[in-house]
UniProtKB/TrEMBL annotation:
<feature type="transmembrane region" description="Helical">
    <location>
        <begin position="38"/>
        <end position="62"/>
    </location>
</feature>
<feature type="transmembrane region" description="Helical">
    <location>
        <begin position="110"/>
        <end position="129"/>
    </location>
</feature>
<protein>
    <submittedName>
        <fullName>Uncharacterized protein</fullName>
    </submittedName>
</protein>
<keyword id="KW-0472">Membrane</keyword>
<keyword id="KW-1133">Transmembrane helix</keyword>
<feature type="transmembrane region" description="Helical">
    <location>
        <begin position="135"/>
        <end position="153"/>
    </location>
</feature>
<feature type="transmembrane region" description="Helical">
    <location>
        <begin position="77"/>
        <end position="98"/>
    </location>
</feature>
<feature type="transmembrane region" description="Helical">
    <location>
        <begin position="6"/>
        <end position="26"/>
    </location>
</feature>
<keyword id="KW-0812">Transmembrane</keyword>
């Protein structure tokens, strides 16, 4: 089980730390650059990083049969990958919004991106792991992280929506 969590954390941290670098390079007076403001090469690199993250998670997911409550087949590995990858991206996005809203400087954000970027993915993976006690601990730690993040933000829901609009720019009615 340790290698599963370590592999998940490593994949999430390397990929999402690098995504953070791409989104904050040349950001100007904004917290990060909108996807529409990225060059074609940078957008391709960002999408490739996320794709590599999901491939790495799938590789981990294929080897989770003994440590999760999911069955031992390819469909289970796909489900595990989708849940861990999707949930991890949502968690990472929330954590990024917290750091922007709380006014963390860019260097701190990038360090957190590389060191802690895999935490949301790992917490979701732990929710699938045996024994059930591990699931409960992961769910509890997730709740604590969400509450801690929300307390650092002035208006959590509005801030998260604002950052989504900034990220996706004109596609969602942002600037």
């Amino acid at each position: 089980m340790k290698w599963q969590f370590g592999g998940t954390w490593l994949a999430g941290s390397v990929a999402m730390g690098t995504v953070a670098v791409l989104l904050t390079a040349g950001r100007g007076d904004r917290p990060f650059r909108a996807l529409s403001g990225l060059s074609g090469l940078m957008l391709f690199a960002l999408l490739a990083l996320v794709a590599v993250l999901f491939v790495a998670l799938f590789a981990v997911g294929l080897r989770t049969e003994d440590v999760t409550w999911l069955p031992n087949d390819t469909r289970a590995a796909i489900l595990w990958t989708a849940a861990v990858g999707g949930g991890g991206l949502i968690g990472w996005g929330f954590a990024a919004a917290v750091t922007f809203d709380a006014g963390f400087d860019l260097a701190t954000q990038l360090i957190l991106g590389y060191l802690g970027g895999g935490l949301p993915f790992t917490l979701i993976a732990a929710m699938f792991a045996k024994p059930v006690r591990t699931n409960a601990i992961a769910a509890g730690l997730t709740a604590i992280a969400l509450l801690a993040g929300a307390t650092l933000m002035d208006r959590p829901l509005q801030s998260c929506i604002r950052y989504l609009l900034l990220l996706f720019g004109p596609a969602l009615g942002g600037q």
